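Hi R.,

Here's the chain you asked about this morning:
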Amino acid sequence: KQNKLGEAILYYNRAQRLAPGDDDIRHNLEMAEALTKDRIEQVPEFFLKSWLRSVRNTLSCRTWTAISLIMFALMLALGLLFVLAQRLAIRKAGFYGLLATLLLFVATTWFAAAERRAILDREAAVVISTAAPVKSSPDRSATDLFVLHEGTTLRVVSTLDEWSEVVIADGKKGWIESGKIERI
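And here is the predicted structure, written out as tokens:
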């Protein structure tokens, strides 16, 4: 409403990191991104990676951690059942249950760790300046490669003094002044 599209996209992205499954945040972010001037084609992502991310985003980091701990406790209980049981049928049930809970423990721990990495990721940034030229080197007199507009999301690869090397969604790279972007 205040015509600060870059800041709106920045804060919607931050909110989405805290609540990745929230449909209202996702909808508002999509609405704000539709207002950006730059139409950058994303490099297609492998379907399995996007599917795993959508599963990971169904629950928060804390929830995945809690489920992981529950799976670990069940795994220990089934391990004890396997070791201490007298009857063969109970030992088999304990063994196969142990294997199943081990797989679930590994999966939920991986989801929790991936969600934590996503929350703490400091590479993603948003252009908050009206227009920001991307240069071929970290110097004001360098050649302009292209111009990014307010609200464009990018990834910061490295920094040098007041310059940041960035990559946009289609794979193009260049240097931008760090004051024209803000990390998510």
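One quick note: The radius of gyration is 23 Å.

Cheers,
M.
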